[in-house]
């Protein structure tokens, strides 16, 4: 009979889909589950509604393959490899005793009693190893960044991982997330409140183990910590070099350092400035590598490069070629003209180099002054507007 109504056609399709689901539910309800430990023994019971047993057959279904364990018929028992000496049948009720279990024994076991009646029972057996003590460690826990706390079991299959912080279950309102395997705890945005003792409980059907770890959240990442250390060393070098410049200047004319000692002091001071600039430039490069390029770091980097070149050349020249400078002055003094005056050259060069810095400072101060005047004028206008509003009088007072 043809179905002309769409509703009737839809009902037939739904009925066809529900039949396999119903069959699967019946199989699931009929399937018994057992869990055992590796090396132990397990007793798999036969059907309970059998009063008289004529024949019994036990099979092991592992994946797509089927292996017959034993066959019993008319008091004749046949046990197949590799279950000899490991499988024992209780003929009175059809139960199977398996000894010295291995992980490969996991799977579905089916017993068929009395072939004519076809009474059967299926049992799902899961053979597990006890879980070992879990290893717990953290990775990349830096403030305002994502981090992970990992829990790993080296031996045994862990079916469930349970996480706690300071002995309490993880609060649901915090930024915690468990991965699909439940072995990695993700902290989306690590913060100070995430510090504490974390415990991981790994368990399966036969055993459980728990371990804990004291987790700390670093304020700076390891690269930024290196930047801080390098910057501190650079400041120390700069401070010592500054002392080497200020100390000779503050001396009196009679006690001022001269001659060979002055040459070595100048070379040492320039060397300190050069090393300080190199360290500061390295810190800036590492910072930009971690945080990204910034004009506030690139401009000082260019200036530090200039300082490195100048101080290196001065230190090298003063240290290794002082005689060349003396010969240059003595050679110039042998002429009938006066010694070359480089004052104008030095002043003009310094002025050209200082112009960009002066322009930046002037632009900054001009902009700040304009913003302050604008804010003050807006405040004056608001104040005058408030004063111009009529004052409402209380009717009780006017009466």
What would you note in describing this structure?
By secondary structure, the chain is α+β, with helices and mostly antiparallel strands. The chain has 7 helices and 17 strands. The protein has helices at residues 6-30, 222-250, 259-291, 295-320, 322-333, 343-388, 395-398; strands spanning 32-37, 42-44, 55-62, 65-73, 76-79, 87-90, 95-98, 107-113, 119-128, 135-139, 147-152, 160-165, 168-169, 176-178, 184-187, 196-203, 208-215. It has a 6-stranded mixed β-sheet with strand order 1-9-8-3-4-5. Strands 10-11-15-14 form a 4-stranded antiparallel β-sheet, with no helix packed on it. The chain has a 4-stranded antiparallel β-sheet with strand order 13-12-16-17, with no helix packed on it. The longest helix has 46 residues, at 343-388. The relative contact order is 0.06. The model is unreliable at 17-29 and 391-399 (pLDDT under 50). This is Ig-like domain-containing protein. It is found in: Membrane. InterPro entries: CD2/SLAM_rcpt, Ig-like_dom, Ig-like_dom_sf, Ig-like_fold, Ig_sub.
């Amino acid at each position: 009979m043809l179905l002309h109504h769409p509703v009737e056609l839809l009902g037939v399709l739904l009925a066809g889909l529900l039949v396999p689901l119903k069959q699967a539910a019946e199989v699931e309800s009929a399937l018994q589950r057992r869990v055992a430990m590796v090396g132990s023994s397990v007793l798999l019971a036969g059907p309970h509604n059998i009063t008289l047993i004529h024949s019994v057959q036990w099979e092991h279904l592992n994946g797509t393959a089927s292996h017959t364990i034993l066959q019993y018929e008319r008091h004749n028992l046949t046990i197949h490899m590799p279950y000899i000496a490991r499988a024992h049948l209780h003929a009175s009720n059809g139960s199977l005793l398996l000894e010295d279990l291995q992980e490969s024994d996991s799977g579905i076991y089916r017993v068929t009693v009395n072939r004519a009646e076809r009474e059967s029972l299926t049992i799902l057996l899961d053979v597990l190893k006890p879980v070992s003590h879990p290893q717990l460690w953290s990775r990349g826990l830096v403030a305002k960044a994502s981090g992970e706390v990992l829990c790993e079991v080296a031996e045994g299959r862990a079916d469930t991982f349970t996480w706690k912080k300071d002995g309490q279950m993880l609060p649901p309102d915090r930024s915690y997330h468990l991965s699909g395997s439940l072995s990695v705890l993700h902290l989306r945005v690590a913060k100070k409140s995430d510090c504490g003792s974390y415990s991981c409980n790994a368990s399966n059907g036969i055993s459980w183990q728990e371990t804990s770890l004291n987790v700390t959240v670093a304020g700076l990442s390891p690269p930024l910590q290196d930047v801080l250390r390098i910057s501190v060393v650079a400041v120390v070098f700069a401070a010592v070099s500054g002392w080497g410049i200020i100390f000779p200047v503050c001396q009196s004319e009679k006690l001022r350092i001269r001659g060979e000692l002055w040459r070595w002091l100048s070379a040492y001071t320039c060397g300190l400035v050069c090393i300080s600039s190199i360290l500061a430039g390295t810190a800036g490069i590492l910072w930009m590598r971690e945080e990204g390029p910034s004009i506030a770091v690139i401009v000082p980097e260019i200036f530090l490069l200039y300082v490195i070149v100048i101080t290196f050349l001065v230190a090298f020249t003063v240290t290794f070629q002082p005689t060349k400078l003396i010969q240059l002055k003595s050679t110039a003094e042998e002429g009938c003209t006066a010694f070359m005056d480089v004052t104008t050259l030095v002043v003009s060069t310094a002025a050209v180099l200082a112009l960009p810095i002066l322009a930046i400072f002037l632009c900054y101060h001009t902009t700040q002054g304009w913003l302050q005047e604008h804010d003050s004028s807006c405040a004056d206008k608001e104040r005058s507007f408030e004063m111009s509003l009529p004052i409402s009088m209380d009717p009780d007072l006017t009466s």
